[in-house]
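2024-03-11 09:14:02 INFO worker-7 job=invfold-0412 stage=load source=structure_tokens
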């Protein structure tokens, strides 16, 4: 049986519902979807999809670091967007965090709405 540990850092937004920032199950880290929220103020980063995506990635990075991991250990990402027309800008920022030759598996899905009505949410799975 594998171990299960809740991962939480003050450097990423606290959950806004009954979930954890991440769960480390054995050697696999499951990170909940992160939105463009400043963990210090609780304010949303709004207006520019590149800035919103960067904040999502910074929040994900903080959680990865808390679990002693990095983007090079991410094997799967899920991106949820409110408007697929913003895909190129989101993809540009997202891609800057990975080596193209070893980037994780991923899907990008357009949805009607996201928590707090943000424009982008990203979740990840990483392994040790």
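2024-03-11 09:14:09 INFO worker-7 stage=emit residues=128
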């Amino acid at each position: 049986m594998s171990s299960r540990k809740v991962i939480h850092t003050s450097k990423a937004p606290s959950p806004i519902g009954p979930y954890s920032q991440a769960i480390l199950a054995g050697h696999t880290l499951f990170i909940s979807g992160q939105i463009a929220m400043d963990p210090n103020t609780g304010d949303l980063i709004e207006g520019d999809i590149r800035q919103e995506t960067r904040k999502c990635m910074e929040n994900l990075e903080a959680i990865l670091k808390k679990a002693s991991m990095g983007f090079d250990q991410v094997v799967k990402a899920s991106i949820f967007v409110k408007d697929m027309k913003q895909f190129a800008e989101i993809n540009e920022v997202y891609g800057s965090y990975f080596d193209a030759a070893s980037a994780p598996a991923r899907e990008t899905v357009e949805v009607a709405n996201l928590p707090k009505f943000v424009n982008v949410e990203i979740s990840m799975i990483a392994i040790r």
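2024-03-11 09:14:09 INFO worker-7 stage=report msg="Helices lie at 49-66, 87-95."
2024-03-11 09:14:10 INFO worker-7 job finished
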